[in-house]
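User: As part of a screening pipeline, I want to sanity-check one entry by hand. Below is the sequence and the SMILES for potassium ion. Please return the complex as structure tokens so I can compare it with the automated output.
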Amino acid sequence: MELTKNPEKLKRRLSSVQLIVLFYLSAVIVSTILLSLPIAHKPNVELSFIDALFTAVSAISVTGLTVVSTADTFSAPGYFILAFILQFGGIGIMTLGTFIWILFGKKIGLKDRQLIMTDQNRSTFAGLVQLMRQILVIVIVIELIGAFILGIHFLKYFPTWQEAFLQGFFASVSATTNAGFDITGTSLVPFAHDYFVQFINMILLILGAIGFPVLIEVKEFLTQKGNYSYKFTLFTKLTTLTFFILIIVGALFIFLFDRNHFFADKTWHESVFYSLFQSISSRNGGLATMDVSEFSDPTLLFISGLMFIGASPSSVGGGIRTTTFAIMVLSIFFYAKGKDTVKVFGRELHPSDIHGSFIVITTAAFICMSSVILMTFLEPSFSIIEIVFEVSSAFGTTGLSMGITPALSTAGKFVIIALMFIGRIGIFSFLFLIRGNTVKDNFKYPKEKVIIG
Amino acid sequence: MELTKNPEKLKRRLSSVQLIVLFYLSAVIVSTILLSLPIAHKPNVELSFIDALFTAVSAISVTGLTVVSTADTFSAPGYFILAFILQFGGIGIMTLGTFIWILFGKKIGLKDRQLIMTDQNRSTFAGLVQLMRQILVIVIVIELIGAFILGIHFLKYFPTWQEAFLQGFFASVSATTNAGFDITGTSLVPFAHDYFVQFINMILLILGAIGFPVLIEVKEFLTQKGNYSYKFTLFTKLTTLTFFILIIVGALFIFLFDRNHFFADKTWHESVFYSLFQSISSRNGGLATMDVSEFSDPTLLFISGLMFIGASPSSVGGGIRTTTFAIMVLSIFFYAKGKDTVKVFGRELHPSDIHGSFIVITTAAFICMSSVILMTFLEPSFSIIEIVFEVSSAFGTTGLSMGITPALSTAGKFVIIALMFIGRIGIFSFLFLIRGNTVKDNFKYPKEKVIIG
Ligand SMILES: [K+]
Ligand SMILES: [K+]
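Assistant: Here is the complex for your manual check:
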């Protein structure tokens, strides 16, 4: 692509996806610089360039994989910088960026609306500014309530109210944005027997990962007046149902696979909380109430699959997304039944959505498989399960790890950085990166059937 | 489904896919009985039921995974029984069965033609009897030539010409049907430095796995008279190109991943033959000139991927098949380019073929992933790479193994049996099994788009 000195011209030459990616890249650079500032570190702590970059991408993509201990490396100002980056990454750079733009009184053009639309996966222009405002308000309200509840509760753990509320604030932001960063040093393991903290965290994790459109529809449903005829969209029904099925089925299988291992010496309530929390966390949060490497291989592979699926679209999460997975399952089922359409909740799925879902899933599987093979080649000292878990976690921007992240080679770190980045921008954006402004074919070839399968 | 005493009525009630599966199941039962006959065994050798069943399914599906040593367990008559089952499985029960039917002078009805059509994945009725005859003639001619060449060559290895030609005959049938069974006891390892034997085996493996329609078109092309206007079908172009790309790229990566391990002390010609042979074998043959567990993890994972892809459709092989893989790659590429059709070799792919390919791939991936998780649960003593390799090999009906097959638990053996069976009948047949005779929906719902990816 020929570079031009006129930025307006350049902007028009780039597709909106390419611009979004450019903005994310800029955010990564700024974050890397911010996290490298001496004021962000504890005294006498040095942070290498690759580790600052890794932390920046992990924060922007709200993954939560860490090559250095957040608690030991960063200072209190560092925590706030990190929380700010999480916020930025979680809500979506464009949404937040455009909101700041509005605050400064700029008018939003068609091109900018298109950018936000791409970033939030919306396919209509209508009410976009209002939508963004709602997202921001909802997220900040949730975070503040969470910070307040956790802060009050943490008074019993920490000597000063400042420290309790700093911990509560960071924990709430980290859970709501599903970032999975922790400043305790060991995720939520210290609260393995504090079911109240776990409960609050589960609520915050779910609210962050269930998707903004769902939150907005629920808000509209709850605040409607008079008649009770509110209609949820097919998207909200499909993604919410899938989301909760994954959580329940996830917890069930985690328990079943490890019944005679990890859960062998646990009480029923410990088992319920351990399996439920790790299931919810694998949707996208990445927080853990235990050392996940204590799980047996089938559980770890199963959780890898859950992380690969990831959160709902238009949420803070990554992965192939819940709707994509649901559409795949429904398509296979209806295909096997010999139906040529997929009908669900009294609606028909659009063929282009079905095709898109399969493109996303197969591309994602291909990327993750290749990454696993490449990583076993680059990191011969780690077991395959550790690598599969790490790769799924990075692509799903989940952030759970069996503990190998800090010991990765520089090449291995770059693979994980790339996966977190692709997981955040999504497979569509990744594919469209190579597209640019496409010219449609205006010629046809005869169709010919081939033998498949 | 209500059972009826009238077999004609029953036949009409069953879909052709269900009938095919019923025939395969019957063939498995007959094969299990044949392999359990005392005459089939070496003196004083006992074969348990589960091991006879495993061997029968492995032979019918021409997989070649073995729970007992073929060389040590079966007698010379046993070898011939096995070769007969391989032939039956390789060419497709329906094709061979119908041919025998013709020999006995029965007329072939519409329903039977439909069965063969399903078995060979053909979508037209035209010239079906002729097609079958051609398949059988081509395969037997190839096998006889192979047996003759190998038999002559083996005279220098074996004391009697009877033994040389028995070995040559079995090796040729096993290679052409891509069965991968061996009566040497150690696959082709004894010929690791006999490049002539390897070369003949590679040719036979390729001819068996490249697909009958391709062989027939090549035969038609070679035997045409006069004008040179023969047009290969899109199917033949697509599958053959994919087939050879997979072999070359496969050999290349096998070499690259293991350059500093297995190939570190090998000469250039050893490296070429080892990597090329194992790449060709992973298409479907399952023969090996070395102990594959000597390869490093990335190579083993990569070969697992190759086995998952498998052979061409309408060949002796299993897996998702080459065309399915090619259509996936092309679809992703054209989607990323923003095109709404997939154009290749001056033709457009049919949307239903594209949809079908994605159904096959995702269902297969789902089945294999679930099997791997289940197997790690059932077989805690084996490593994940051993299980991934075994599962891919069974689904691809390839038959390569890191050596765990004989040590599997009974539950583990049943999982592998199921995978070999599904691999042989194919994902389509597997899905259609649950269908029966479907009634099409005659109602419509409004279409609604959802957010994906
Ligand atoms: K996360
Ligand atoms: K085989």
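Points to compare against the pipeline: Chain A touches chain B through 86 residues (CB under 8 Å). Confidence is low (pLDDT under 50) at residues 1-5 of chain A.
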